[in-house]
Design a protein that fits this description.
Blueprint (H helix, E strand, L loop, with lengths): L1 E4 L11 H6 L2 E3 L8 E3 L11 H17 L40 E6 L2 E6 L4 H16 L13 H5 L8 E4 L2 E4 L4 E3 L2 H16 L2 E3 H14 L11 H9 L4 E3 L2 H15 L6 E2 L10 E7 L3 E8 L9 E6 L2 H5 L13 H19 L7 E6 L2 H9 L7 H16 L2 E6 L6 H6 L7 H11 L7 E3 L3 H10 L1
Helix pairs in contact: 2-3, 5-6, 5-8, 7-8, 10-11, 10-12, 12-15
């Protein structure tokens, strides 16, 4: 990886004669009654459409590099690069995520405003860097007599940003392309720790400060594994409070301590890049809930080492069934959405305890309950009820086993197996497996497993 910044970014885009007059500025002159008129010759800062025009130039340059179009002219830049790299162009760490790795070295150039990022693999890495520098000089070069600085920011070059390396800070994230991990930079961790300390030491805060805290945490949760599941307790004060200044609830204060603990253990839970990029999951699963119980299944994909399909079910205790909200029980306080999320939690915890999953195992969970799918996708709710605690337990499971889960919505008509399992408590285990094998045969046959007792306890406690 390498990063190249442009010097004097916007000012390198020339303006046409019509555009220059359109953007002219009248300057008052105290010494002369006649005002001065400033006519810009290049793209100015502050104009609403300046980023659009500027990105048209930078994106074009990136497209030329990705098309491997040879640069029309040579460049005058001399950036020493490593002549060899010990990392092979197809590192073995990507095999669990990509069963069909590329057979040739990859090269890609991306740009964010004026930050050009080059990702390349040997032995074509030197040619890719030379191609990027040539196109930058071709698109943004100045006349020979121009007093402007050279195109590439020399201060960033001296810091080593333009040197190809397997460890690089890109757009505020520390990336390691050899370990395939992404991390928060040290200054980001220190900033969050100071911010959390400010709130844990006080008893009251304001809406504006609390929203700023949530914004900071949201912006950095990419490198904190499953941090999105810890937001419910922090968002609830904004819903419950009706004044601009409010007292920090005990639940929110506990969540602040949880976040501090997450930051102190970042080294133990690095986030794999493959977890934040869509890829083939290791398991396809589905879950469902009814008044009587929960049930679901999971099946291995072609990249899973375990080829056994599993099913599970769990009957709900009588006291939870009596609290179920329905037309026959309008005073109940447990909804079907709560039970669907409980089924997803048990459905994710069951394979972790009954199999030996690979590190960074991912599961694609299908559900016919749209609120539950939204909670799992967003990672938080706007209430302090059972879903808040279930999401928190799910986050701890994902962090303990270093795995992830993605929820997708599916119509109820296609969720027949999980629907059958959540209503099959009149059948014995043997009758259940015979019915499943007859209705939906698989090879090897279905295997019935039991959800782990600690997860059942935590689910009941949350409900």
């Amino acid at each position: 990886m390498a990063k190249i910044d442009l010097a004097d970014g916007y000012y390198r885009i020339p303006l046409s004669a019509h555009a220059a007059l359109t953007l002219a500025v009248v300057l008052p002159n105290d010494m002369d009654p006649e005002p001065l008129i400033g006519i810009p010759l290049s793209l100015p800062m502050g104009w609403r459409d300046s980023p659009t025009y500027f990105c048209a130039f930078t994106e074009t340059c990136a497209d030329l590099c990705n098309a491997m179009t040879p640069s029309p002219i040579s460049h005058p830049y001399d950036i020493p690069q490593p002549t060899h790299n010990t990392t092979s162009f197809a590192p073995s760490v990507i095999w669990p995520y990509n069963p069909w790795p590329p057979t040739h070295p990859l090269t890609h150039t991306d740009v964010y405003l004026d930050d050009f990022m080059l990702l390349t693999q040997p032995p074509s890495h030197l040619q890719a860097m030379d191609n990027l520098l040539g196109h930058l000089h071709s698109v943004f070069q100045d006349p020979a007599d121009s007093p402007r600085r050279i195109v590439i920011s020399q201060s960033k070059v001296q810091k080593g940003d333009a040197i190809l390396s397997t460890q690089k800070r890109l757009l505020g994230w520390d990336n390691d392309s050899e370990k395939m991990e992404i991390r928060l930079p040290p200054h980001g961790i220190d900033r969050l720790c100071d911010l959390l300390l400010t709130f844990t030491q006080g008893k009251h805060t304001t809406w504006k400060k609390w929203q700023k805290l949530l914004g900071e945490l949201r912006s950095m949760m990419l490198a904190i594994h499953k941090a999105q599941y810890f937001f419910t307790a922090l968002q609830y004060p904004l819903v419950a409070s009706h004044s601009r200044r409010f007292r920090i609830p005990a639940l929110a204060r506990q969540a602040l301590y949880n976040w501090t603990n997450l930051l102190h253990h970042l080294e133990l839970h690095p986030v794999p890049i493959a977890m934040i990029v869509p890829h083939t999951p290791h398991f396809f699963a589905a879950s469902d809930a009814s008044l009587h119980g929960l049930g679901g299944f999971w099946m291995p994909s072609n990249i899973s080492r375990d080829k056994q399909p599993y099913v599970w079910r769990h009957a709900l205790p009588a006291d939870i069934q009596h609290r179920f909200l329905s037309p026959d029980n309008p005073t109940g306080d447990i909804t079907i959405n709560d039970l669907e999320l409980a089924a997803a939690y048990l459905g994710h915890a069951t394979p972790l305890c009954n199999t030996r999953p690979l590190p960074h195992t991912s599961t694609c969970l299908a559900t016919d309950n749209m609120p539950m799918a939204a909670w799992l996708t967003k990672g938080s709710t706007s209430s302090a009820g059972p879903p808040a605690y279930l999401l928190r337990h799910l986050a701890h499971d994902c962090r303990s086993h270093n795995c992830s889960m993605t929820a997708v919505f599916t119509p109820s008509s296609t969720n027949n197996i999980a629907d059958f399992l959540s209503r099959s408590f009149s059948l014995s285990d043997h009758e259940l497996l015979e019915s499943l094998q007859r209705l939906t045969p698989t090879q090897p046959p279905w295997k019935l497993v039991t959800p782990p007792e600690p997860s059942i306890y935590l689910m009941n406690w949350a409900l």
